User: Which sequence fits this backbone?
């Protein structure tokens, strides 16, 4: 199983590590490098699968659950019922048959601890169907767009087949279970921790029972980010747990009069979630890059690592290459590294209900990893 991915920017040896939160403005922008990553798994401990379960249309600004009716399968709609639309989609996706390779694992679903997939940009149906494996953490890469490279919207590989849609992946069902981690370099906090007191769809409607758009605007002004400077930054909502930021969602828009802020996300953090508002580096500033192989912090270390990265949209997959440029080959041992400008998916599950995390999508340049001891 595989897919075409985007180039990855790796910083020079003199740069700070990937975990640095302050980009160096004097540092030259890193050169995007073409990557080829290979991972080998014991066939007695992993099952490779191919999915054609359909998803739904992309997120809309300010979409409420009711507005999603048009994108729901007609058979899933019951106009006489009081509907939880996330549940409707899950039940609808559950009507699809799991890929044969995963169906054979259903009887031992509790043994499946990790599912890794490479998918097109409509993974919702598959992600919902994977609820058949409640103890499994899910990590997925939304494959790079390749219409100008292969003539396909996405280019996925499964055995000897080249595919334009759906998903491919593998399910792991023998120990050890990898730990799922995230890193969000380049963020600067705008506020202290806040509690979501009301949300709907991809909208946050109240933070600490106050107007979230006005809280964001006041925090931006307090930081001195005013006028044209405010247009040079992107703003984010980070979900906090255990004193750490575990999810980050890009803020698409805000409406101080209505109070809501819309997120580039399928679903906003639920009521009771602890969040914090952040801003990223100004536009044009060097983005935090991956460390060089000589800088061990962040990527290399004991054990093995599989990492998915959201790549900059100005470094898409391209059929062009400069044959006269110097060849720069870098090798990261025990690291599988892949990037896409379309982002990654992550849902961390554990043995206890409190550890479960709904699958969410990251569309900004950060990283999610699976770590094996």
Assistant:
């Amino acid at each position: 199983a595989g897919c075409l991915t985007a180039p990855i920017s790796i910083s020079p040896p003199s740069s700070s590590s990937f975990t640095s939160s302050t980009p160096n403005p004097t540092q030259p922008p890193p050169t995007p490098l073409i990557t080829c990553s290979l991972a080998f798994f014991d066939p007695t401990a992993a099952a490779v699968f191919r999915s054609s379960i359909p998803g739904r249309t992309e997120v809309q600004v300010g979409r409420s659950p009711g507005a999603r009716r048009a994108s729901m399968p007609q058979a899933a709609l019951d106009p006489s019922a009081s509907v939880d639309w996330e549940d409707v989609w899950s039940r609808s996706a559950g009507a699809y048959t799991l890929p044969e390779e995963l169906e054979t694992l259903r009887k031992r679903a509790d043994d499946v601890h990790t599912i890794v997939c490479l998918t097109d940009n409509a993974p919702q149906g598959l992600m919902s169907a994977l609820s058949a494996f409640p103890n499994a953490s899910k990590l997925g890469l939304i494959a790079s767009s390749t219409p100008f490279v292969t003539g396909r919207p996405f280019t996925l590989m499964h055995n000897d087949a080249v595919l334009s849609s759906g998903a491919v992946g593998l399910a792991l069902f023998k120990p050890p279970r990898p730990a799922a981690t995230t890193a969000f370099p380049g963020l600067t906090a705008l506020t202290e921790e806040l509690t979501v007191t009301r949300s709907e769809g991809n909208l946050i409607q109240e933070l600490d029972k106050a107007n979230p758009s006005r809280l964001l605007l006041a925090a931006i002004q307090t930081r001195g980010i005013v006028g044209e400077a405010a247009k040079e930054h992107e703003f984010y909502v980070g979900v906090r747990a255990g004193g750490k930021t575990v999810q980050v969602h890009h803020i698409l828009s805000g409406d101080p009069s209505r109070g809501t802020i819309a997120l580039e996300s399928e679903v906003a953090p639920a009521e009771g979630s602890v969040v914090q508002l952040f801003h990223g580096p100004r536009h044009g500033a060097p983005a935090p890059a991956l460390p060089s192989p000589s800088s061990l912090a962040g990527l290399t270390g004991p054990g093995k690592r599989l990492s998915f990265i959201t790549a900059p949209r100005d470094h898409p997959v391209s059929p062009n290459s400069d044959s006269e440029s110097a060849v720069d080959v870098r090798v990261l041992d025990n690291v599988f590294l892949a990037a896409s400008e379309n982002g990654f998916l992550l849902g961390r599950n554990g043995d206890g209900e409190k550890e479960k995390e709904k699958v969410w999508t990251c569309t900004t340049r950060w990283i999610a990893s699976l770590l094996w001891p």
The two ends are 24 Å apart (CA to CA).
